[in-house]
Amino acid sequence: MSSHRRDVLRGAIGLTGATLLGGAARAAATAPRTLSLLNLHTGEKLTATYFEGGEYVAEALEAVNRVLRDFRTGDVHPIAPGLLDLVATLRGRLDTNQTVHVISGYRSPHTNAMLHEHSEGVANHSLHMVGEAMDIRIPGVDLAHLRNAALDLQRGGVGYYPASDFVHVDVGRVRRW
């Protein structure tokens, strides 16, 4: 076989491989995404497919917003779909289908100010106030393992609170504490 024919054959195989990988990436990007969430303060549990057919599902997002509302005031605020994607990716990385226990989702400015007054651990301009942060734990998953998996993703902030038994995740800039 000539050198030219080998090069052409290699190129064709490379393109086929790239096409297959691209197809796999597209399939993963459009695959349904489901989360199970338990609000520990209200006891409300929700299992929802929030992304399907390549689109976020409005009704499921609204249900998530209600479950992750500020339990102190009842205020509901949109939760960033990217935050849900982050938590779903974490569950996948941790190879668990367990329900995610949520200590805090959305926090109204009023609630955040009150908590900030009583704790140094509450940021004055918390991403909880814009629906871009969650404080979570997952039954059966070691808290340090959850933190490490979140850090490995490099998709936002990660706070580790072992004394309070939760990990903070957000979709802000990459940082840790």
Describe the structure.
- By secondary structure, the protein is of the alpha+beta class.
- The protein has 5 helices and 8 strands; from the N terminus they run αβββααβαβαβββ.
- Strands 3-2-1-4-5-7-6-8 form an 8-stranded mixed β-sheet.
- A hairpin with a 2-residue loop joins β2 (45-52) and β3 (55-56).
Mean pLDDT: 89
Biggest pleated-sheet summary: 8 strands, mixed
Q: Count the helices. How many?
A: 5
**Category by helix and strand content:** alpha+beta
Give the strand tally: 8
Rg (C-alpha, Å):
20 Å
- Percent strand equals 15-25%
Share of helical residues: 40-55%
Q: How do the strands line up in the largest sheet?
A: 3-2-1-4-5-7-6-8
Head-to-tail CA distance between termini: 60 Å
Q: Low-confidence segments, ≥5 residues, pLDDT <50?
A: 8-13
Dominant shape: globular
Helix and strand pattern:
HEEEHHEHEHEEE
Structure characteristics:
177 residues; alpha+beta; globular
